[in-house]
Design brief:
It is built from 11 helices and 11 strands. With 289 residues, it is of the alpha/beta class.
Length: 289
């Protein structure tokens, strides 16, 4: 697959074209997704603007990043949003401290969270609203029903799901149109392969979280990955992102960072054309890892 094919736009929800390498805002908040990462918010504002200037058309955020911090930064940096920029956010989780979070999927909670995101992001309609976690104490039909009501009211354009299995995705699609899935997935963690295959069959976007293995795929990451990176004059992180782009046309990685240089490095992965030999080495290494 050549670089042009790898970077071809993906039609999110069948009608919103986005570049397949996006930008995630989890890196703009502090440890444990609590508070801001940078003392001066202008650093994050500049980083978001730099991402869009570099051609990013998909920004992935969530109401509980901060909480509220990431969404407010997105609006401060990018509103009024340029044509073609898609903002995805998430609701259904409440944070009460660093790494402390609670699932909140009652219909009235989801409505309140969605409407709060609308205000913070300064929009009338959210391009993509993702249920951050299914609430085991609330029927799926009630949770998705709340999002369908919001969609009918014009407050949500497309509905997505986070951290689900293939059976749950199949059930969800019987209740509501699902435009995206966001599961943990990377070269070393492919437990959601069956979910990815279902997304491919249905044309559903798959936004892999921890696309770099939460740092495990950067630096000294294994002989095969290091060898492929050396042949391409690339970092192991770039090869890991390039592998995702080659592995499936529905994979839309949105790696996050707080560094402009790292952002540029990540985006450059889209220009790497892996060979069949490269892919074979990486697949064999993954199988043995």
């Amino acid at each position: 697959m050549d670089a042009e094919s790898v970077l071809a736009d993906f039609p999110l929800g069948g009608e919103l074209p986005v570049r397949r390498l996006g930008f995630g805002t989890g890196g703009l908040v502090g440890p444990g997704y609590w508070g801001p990462r940078h003392g001066d918010p202008q650093h994050s504002v500049a980083l978001l603007r730099h991402a869009v200037e570099r051609g990013v058309t998909l920004i992935d955020t969530a109401d509980n990043y901060g909480p509220d911090v990431a969404e407010e930064l997105v609006a401060r940096a990018l509103h009024p949003y340029p044509a073609g920029l898609v903002i995805a956010t998430k609701g259904g989780v409440v944070r009460t401290g660093p790494d402390r979070w609670h699932i909140a999927g009652r219909p009235e909670q989801l409505r309140a969270m969605c409407e709060a995101s609308l205000r913070r992001l300064r929009v009338d309609t959210l391009d993509l609203y993702q249920l951050h976690r299914l609430d085991p104490d609330v029927p799926m039909a009630d949770q998705l029903g709340a999002l369908l009501d919001l969609q009918r009211e014009g407050k949500i354009r497309h509905i997505g799901l986070d951290s689900i299995d293939a059976a749950e995705l199949t059930r969800a699609r019987e209740i509501a149109p699902i435009a995206s899935v966001q599961n943990r997935y990377n070269l070393l963690d492919r437990a959601a392969e069956d979910v990815l295959e279902l997304c491919e069959k249905q044309g559903i976007a798959f936004l892999p979280w921890f696309p770099l293995g939460n740092g495990a795929l950067t630096g000294a990451a294994g002989a095969a990955l290091t060898a492929v990176a050396a042949r391409h004059g690339a970092t192991t992180g770039q090869i890991s992102l390039a592998w995702l782009l080659h592995h499936s046309p529905v994979l839309l990685p949105t790696p996050g960072t707080g560094s402009p240089a790292h952002l540029d490095e990540n985006l450059a992965a889209g220009r790497i054309a892996l060979t069949e030999g490269d892919l074979g080495e990486l697949e064999a290494w993954e199988a043995l890892a």
